[in-house]
Task: inverse folding
């Protein structure tokens, strides 16, 4: 490991979290590995999740699904977000399950299947109340009829029906059950037309952990796989965070009282002190809004960031005695939070966002280092 900035991914934590999800939901797990597995690395995470018993994978873009196939992953992969130029031909050729959200998308998939004289595997994604992607209510009867017809002539196999919850992180909200009822009705419509889906899935992480009654055949968790609680008010559900972000202390300097630090000298040393320069910045996904707020751990002690966070580096105040920190020591920017260490959620809370955005935002310059994963094989990704 040579990088001054590393994101260590604990594949045993991923495996543990798959177990927690499967047991709590009482259903099989479709592991959501879109956005490079929420920044954790799609391939190693996909392998670890499958080895731990997840039965399927899910991504947004077909390109993400194809990358999994190209790496030799032959598990069922569903892809659910398609632009106007989506490559349905390649998706069909590589046996990707194409989740369609409109009659226009379905027509394009059917065209591609007929052109190739192959059967496309299709999931129908129904908008049951999120009002984002998914088949809109007014498009539903057209889509259902098209699916039935295309299934009858062999252009598609209707493998699954899915929807996404708007308020999954509010477990008792009536919209959750209403969305499930609407999906059940849509599935019944398809069955009446002879195009019954084999598989149904609704639940994201929060629903998988709190609403087993919504689980149907599969749950479709993302953030919980990575060990981050989707409903912090309800605790951690026994999940273990998988990513620890660490950076080198590249320089240590003495400052005199009155010296300013970093761009525009937004922090002036109130007394003589020592500072440490940490090799992580906003290009690596450390939000600049954390300037003066971030706290990092070095050798078990917490030090506060001072001055502006820059593109590649940030500065911490080590205090007059230097805190025992030396150049080459490692600063933990966030990790499991055990022993009171900093977490991605601390960052998110400090700047008014969610830890999903923090972990997915960790840049590629942070070398991903994989540990654990006895069931999947560890190594550098
Ligand atoms: C369609 C779909 N299903 C499941 C998920 C996983 O959600 P979560 O990370 O909250 O479990 C996502 C992520 O946004 C999604 O878009």
Result:
């Amino acid at each position: 490991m040579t990088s001054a900035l590393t994101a260590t991914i604990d594949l045993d934590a991923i495996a543990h979290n798959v177990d927690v999800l499967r047991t709590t939901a009482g259903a099989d797990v479709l592991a959501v590995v879109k956005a490079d597995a929420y920044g954790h690395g799609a391939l190693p995470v996909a392998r670890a999740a499958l080895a731990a018993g997840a039965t399927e994978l899910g991504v947004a873009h077909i390109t993400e699904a194809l990358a999994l196939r190209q790496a030799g992953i032959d598990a069922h992969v569903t892809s659910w977000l398609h632009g106007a130029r989506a490559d349905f031909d390649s998706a069909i050729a590589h046996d990707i399950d194409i989740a369609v959200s409109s009659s226009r998308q379905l027509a394009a998939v059917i065209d591609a299947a007929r052109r190739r004289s192959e059967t496309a595997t299709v999931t129908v994604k129904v908008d049951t109340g999120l009002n984002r992607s998914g088949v809109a209510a007014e498009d539903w009867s057209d889509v259902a009829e098209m699916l039935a017809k295309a299934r009858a002539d062999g252009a598609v196999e209707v493998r699954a029906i899915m929807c996404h919850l708007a308020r999954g992180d509010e477990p008792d909200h009536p919209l959750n059950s209403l969305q499930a009822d609407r999906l059940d009705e849509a599935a019944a419509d398809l069955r009446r037309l002879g195009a019954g889906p084999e598989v149904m899935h609704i639940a994201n992480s929060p629903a998988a952990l709190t609403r087993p009654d919504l689980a149907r055949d599969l749950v479709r968790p993302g953030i919980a796989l990575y060990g981050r609680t989707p409903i912090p008010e309800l605790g951690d559900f026994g999940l273990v965070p998988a990513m620890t972000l660490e950076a080198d202390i590249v320089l240590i300097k003495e400052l005199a009282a009155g010296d300013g630090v970093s761009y525009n000298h937004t922090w002036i040393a109130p007394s003589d002190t020592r500072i440490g320069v940490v090799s992580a910045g906003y290009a690596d996904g450390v939000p600049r809004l954390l300037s003066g707020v971030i706290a990092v751990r070095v050798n078990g002690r917490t030090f506060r960031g001072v001055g502006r966070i820059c593109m590649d580096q940030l500065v911490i105040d080590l205090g007059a005695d230097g805190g025992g920190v030396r150049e080459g020591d490692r600063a933990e920017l966030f990790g499991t939070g055990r022993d009171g260490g900093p977490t991605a959620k601390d960052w998110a809370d400090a700047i008014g966002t969610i830890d999903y955005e923090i972990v997915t935002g960790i840049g590629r310059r942070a070398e991903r280092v994989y540990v654990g994963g006895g069931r999947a094989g560890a190594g550098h990704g």
User: Anything to note?
Assistant: Residues 377-381 have pLDDT under 50 and may be disordered. The pocket of pyridoxal-5'-phosphate is lined by residues 32, 80, 164, 204-205, 220-224, 230 (CB under 6 Å). The chain is about 30% helix and 25% strand.
